[in-house]
Design a protein that fits this description.
6 strands, 35% strand, alpha+beta, Double Stranded RNA Binding Domain
Amino acid sequence: MRISLLGVDTPVTDDQRAYAEYRFFRALARHEALVRAVTVAVRYDAAANRSCLCTITVDLSPSGTVRTQARAPHPTAAIDRAAERTAWLLERRATTTAGCEVVSTRVW
């Protein structure tokens, strides 16, 4: 799994890059076999009181892509929210097979 962090109109520090790599690897490790690459783009949104917008694109090699966004007051919080949302989307995608959603896999 390749994870890359891009700063759109804003510089990206080494600490932010390391944090994004760690956070996304931890969030998506369960789905490592499906994920080919993760692109994380961070930018400040002037229209939304300078909040930080984190846009994620996950390349699932044979089956397409997953895209999502998260907004927060600073980059690390936006990265956290985006990682959680991406993990949720991949989990949902993994439990959906052939158009039928698996409701639960627990034995009660």
